[in-house]
Amino acid sequence: MVPTCVLEEWRFFMMEFGELCVMMVGIYQMLQWCVDNWAVVLLKRQRAKLILGEVQDKYDIRLVNGINLCSGRVEIRHNGVWGTVCDNGWDLSDAAVVCRQLGCGAAKEAKSKAYFGKGSGRIWLDNVACTGKETTLKNCSASSWGKNKCGHHKDAGVICQCE
């Protein structure tokens, strides 16, 4: 994907001058950027997906339906089955543990009310109460696994800083 700055620069030239030669230079710059950088961008994306996949498998946690690899609905695997986390009591301390566990830096926001869409299947955790210092979400205080009075309309999510 061509960075926004390159696209904006091209649009500026078009609006400001509107000359064919400027348009051709802008198109050439965009195409040249794509040729020069497509492999790097693809490799970085693939590497990020592989790393996050390894982390998710290792720690039995993942983020779903986010705008990037470090945002989304929180899902946790228990006894080999993926399920969601209820937003009762969900706050920034809980989100901080998830973000750190996934290697996504600090937590920016703790999301509630299925902000990233409703999950399906089991709701594993409810009334999560992390101090923010735990290494994994499973180390936080919560109701017993699978015991909740929650629906998927209350699935918890996070937005991390993506460091």
Ordered list of secondary-structure elements with their pairings:
Blueprint lengths: L3 H13 L3 H40 L1 E5 L5 E8 L2 E5 L6 H10 L5 E5 L10 E4 L31 E4 L3
Parallel strand pairs: 3-5
Antiparallel strand pairs: 1-2, 2-3, 2-6, 4-6
Helix pairs in contact: 1-2
Number of strands: 6
Order of helices and strands: HHEEEHEEE
In CATH's first tier, which class of the largest domain applies?
Alpha Beta
CATH topology of the largest domain: Mac-2 Binding Protein
Ends distance:
21 Å
What summary fits the major beta sheet? 6 strands, mixed
What would CATH call the homologous superfamily of the largest domain? SRCR-like domain
Low-confidence stretches: 1-24
Task: Work out the strand percent.
Answer: 15-25%
Number of helices: 3
Pfam families: SRCR
Keywords: Disulfide bond, Glycoprotein, Receptor, Repeat, Signal
Protein name: Scavenger receptor cysteine-rich domain-containing group B protein
